[in-house]
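Q: Could you write out the predicted structure for this multi-component system? I'm mainly interested in how the pieces pack against one another.
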Amino acid sequence: MSTTGRDETGPIIETSGLTRTFTVRDGARRRRLTAVDGLTVTIEPGEAVGYIGANGAGKSTTIKMLTGILVPTRGTVTTCGLRPVKDRRRLARQVGVVFGQRSQLWWDLPVRESFRILAAIHDLPAATERERTGELVEHLEMADFLATPVRQLSLGQRMRAEIAAALLHAPRLVILDEPTIGLDVLSKQRLREFLVARRRTHGTTLLLTTHDMGDVERLCDRILVIDRGRLAYDGDLAGLGRTTGAQRVLVVDLAAPAPDLTGIPAARHLGSEAHGLRQRLAFDPDRTTAAQVFAAVAARVEVRDFTVAEPDIEDVVRRLYARQASGSPQNAGDDAATMTTMTKTQR
Amino acid sequence: MDDAGLAGAGPGQVRTLPPRAGELRRRSRGARLRPYRAVLASRARSQATYRANFALDLASSLLTAIAELAEIWVLFRSVTGIGGLDFRQILLVFGLADLTFSLADLMFGHCDRLPTYLRAGTLDVFYLRPQPLLAQLITSDIALRRLARASVGLAALVAGLVVNDVAWGAASMALLALALASGVATFAALFVTAAGLQFFVVDGRELTNSFVYGGRYAATQPASVWPHSLVIVFGYVFPMAFTGFLPSLRLLGLPSTGWLPSWLGWCGPLAAVWAWTAALLCWRWGMRHYRGGGG
């Protein structure tokens, strides 16, 4: 087939009006349920896209259509330049999928054995198999449990093995469905670092669904928010914050206790801790900058340390939903007090 | 269709690995079978690893098979014959049917547990691999403990062939080989049919057991005593009579009975083709339903 050239230069995912409905039996009646509704999106090679939305918003259904498991009811979808349903087997060689909830390893076999079988499934030559396995074992730090049966692995270890299993055939597109679910903070951190490095060195396109906003903040430069099957937002994280009127929060640690820092231009005092030793100020990134707020604070008191917290995405998404539900854009910036999660810190 | 090399990184992307020249070679037959061999070999190894467990499985499988054979022996001890067959002759029917069923069960039995695969998401994982779905399902497991059961079937078959007055020759040897091969294929088709139908019914095993295990039981019985309704169901729709009873009639040189003439003993392969046609249609239909292709 002569499509190979086009495959590797065009968009990696392209959907147009992608729709999937299910018929559900509700007692004697049948109801039509639209899981994905007219999704039109294009993802270029090398992008890292966070696909977020509430439970049942249509994320899994989309992934199943992208990989050829489900047939779309309407609309078109191309993945890696291929039609997922018709070209499923060719597509499988270019896509790696990690389902947080379902394993593609053999539970009663040592991890190493699972890798060997997967190499056979993708028909990797022995040298390539050795090289890839070696690379993944090293970067995902799996040497200690290669001989352990999968069922005896900790969740963190299993997840690493799952990701290695999905990457063994060097896919151009990696889809991660809730990759960090249930992991402890350290394991999450390591996994994210690995994925960031992998993307840098291999140019792999990442598409991940998650409930963990840390994943999106650390890994993704583009966010798609899906709400009841419809695309509710497509853009970067900062833009999502702006769209919903979310505010950033400057947290300052002071040299000595001080009264509440009120009256800073374009900023609002959120609260103080430890008799005013630590204070939090919310500001709208469109009206001022972190530097201006900091300068105004530093002019009044001596600052020992500070961090800037980005809006908590879960909250931002909630606002986005609320905004869509009410049908009109409104600045809901007043309850910035809920955005207290310390996530992306800048110094 | 050449799908080699598509898995590589695109242009403009940093490659830390050399191009895989080996993957560009034409995929030979050996390469096509490599995935299946790898999975099956690992399944077999894993079962042999837990020795005590495996021994227990073998023993229980053996006991079940012996109990079933004993049941027939008890039945035939109280009567001289059923449907024109005595115990020695029914031994041949039982041997053929039970050996072929056990071998099919060994290789295809897990297809009958499709809902387990659906619940665990294993089927979705199959969709993400570059092999046909059904081939992956079939080769995803192998139940070596069924060897115990197959050995009872084999013993019954050998005994049946020895104690009966079989006119040995090229024809009867060919008939036996044909009956064995098509018997395994016919029973295998039952398991695949069951898998296809289980896409539709969540607790489909209740339904499919009726023809899988009902069929197995029917296959070990003399079809000559079946009422016409049963002849239609297990003679033709699910061609169970073709696995044990009909080839045995032929081997023993016994006369035809009613709706099942003895020349049908040679038609095992036809029955297998018919069963597989139905099985593949059910499977396709089930898969369409699962992917939602039909609406």
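A: Regarding packing and overall arrangement: Chain A has eleven helices and 13 strands.
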